[in-house]
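Every protein is a chain of amino acids, and every chain bends into a shape of its own. Below is the pair of lines this work produces for a single protein:
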Amino acid sequence: MNQPILSSALVLLITASSLINAAPRIDYDIDNDGLIEIQDLQDLNEIRNNVTQMNYSGEADGFISLELHGDALYGSNDGCPEDGCAGYELINDLNFDTNLNEQFDAGDAYWNEGKGWQSIGSFFVKFVGEFHGNGFTLHNLNINRPGERFVGLFAYSELAHFHDFSLTGHIKAWSDTGAILGYAWKSQFDHLFADVVIEGINNEIDCLHNCEANRLGGLVGSSDDSVYQQLVIKTNVSGYNFLGGLVGVSHADKINEAAIQASIHGYNVLGGLVGQIDNAEIESVFSVVNINGHSSVGGLIGSSELTTMKNILLSGSVTPGLGTTKYARGGSLVGVIDKDEISKVISLVKLPIDIEQRHFIGALVGSAYDPKISDTYWASDLTLREDMFSRNYNLGISQHFELTDLQCASQFTNCNGLIFDQFSEPLNLNQQPLWRFGNNTQAPIISLTIGDFADRNGDGETDSWPVIEGPTRINNPEPVPEVPATSDSTNSGSGSIWFLLFMIPLFIRRS
C-alpha cells in the first residue's frame, strides 16, 4: 500500500507557521469541489509547506517520495470532503507587484533579496495535484534566480493538472525553466493564457562547466508524456540550446489547439512551439515567430523525430545560420525531421537568402530523413525557395506558389493551380470548421476554439491577439532596492517558528 506519512516535525512546523502567518479558516473548501481556495499570495506561497511523504515500496525502510498533493493548507484540511481535497483553486486575481509601483523592488512582499518568487516545490518535492485558475490571472510573476534549475511558478510536476488561468511575468533562471513549470511528467495543461519573458542565465560565479542555459519554454522547460490544449502564449525566450515558445524539450507529448507568438533567440534547436520533440502528436497550431539561431531552427519545431504534425499555420521570420559558416539547418516549419508525418501546413514565413549556399535551409524543412508529407504549401516569394527540403536531401516537392496565390485560393477556388480542397474536413474541438478562407486578398485563417488566428496580409505579424487585462505590467524587471530586504518567502517568520518549537516542550512539561 502507498501510505502517506507526515512527519511529526513537519506537522509541528506547519502548525507553527499557520499560527504566525494566517488566521485559521473554518472551511478551506467552501464550494465543496475538493479544491482548496487560494485567496491571496500568502495562500499561494503556503502550498509549498504542505508536504506528504509517500512510501511506494510498502517497506518500512523503502524510498520516501515528497509530494504536494493539494490536500491541505496551513496544515489543515477543514471543510474538505471525506475522501480529501486534491488541489487548489484561485478565487481572485493575484498581483506579485504587491506595492503597485510598477517595479520589482524591496517593497514587494516576495522580493526575497532580489530573487523574487521561489518556485513551489523542487526536483525532490513534486506537485501532484490540480491547480484550477477559475479564469483568474496571476500578474507580474517575477523570478530572478540565475544558475537555478527547475524554475517557474511551480518547479516540478507529476500527474498534475493546470488549467483555466492567465499569467504574466518575467523569469530569469538557468536550465529547465518555464513560466508555469520547470519540468512536467504526465501532466495536463489546458485553457491557459500567458504573456511572459523567459531568460536563460547561468550563475557566472559558480559556473565551471556545462554552463549553457538549455531547455527553456514559454510555459514549461522540459516535458514528458503530457497533454497541452487550448493555449494562447505570447513569449520572448532567450538562452542556448533547446528553446521553444511552449516547451523546450518534449517527449511523447500531445499538443492540440495552441496559438503561439514567440520571439526566440539562442544557439541550436529552436522552435516556435518546441525546441526538440519526439514520439509526439501536434495538431491545430498557429505559430507567428521571430527566431534567430545557428542550426536546427524552425518556425514550429527545431528538431523532431517520429512525430505527427497536422493543421499548422505559420508566419513571421526564421533566421538560421547566424554565427556559423556552413551546414546550418533550418526551415519555415522544422529544422530537422526524422521519420515524421506532416500534413496540411500553410507557411507564410520569411527565410533568409543563402546566395553562397553555405547552409541547409529548405522552404519547409532543413534536413529530412524518411518523412511522410502531404498537403503542405508555402509562399515561395517569402521563403525565397521553391524546394521543400534543403540540398543535403532529396529536394522533395517543388512549388512556385507565391503569397498572392495562397491569398487567392480557397477550398473551392483554384488560383494558379493551387486549391485547398483538402482543408475543408478538419474540425476544431468545438466540431466547427478549423480552416477558414476570406476574400481573394486574404491568407487562410485557422479557427481554434480559443479564437481565430491569421496573418491575412502576410506581413509576418498576427492580425489580432487576446490581451490579458489587469494592472500595469512591470516594464523594468531588474531588482530595484528601496527598503531593507526582507527574508526569503520560505523562511518568513522562521525565527518565531523556531521559538515556538523551542517552547513546546516547556508547555508539555507544565501541562
About this structure: The chain is about 10% helix and 40% strand. Confidence is low (pLDDT under 50) at residues 1-20, 483-511.
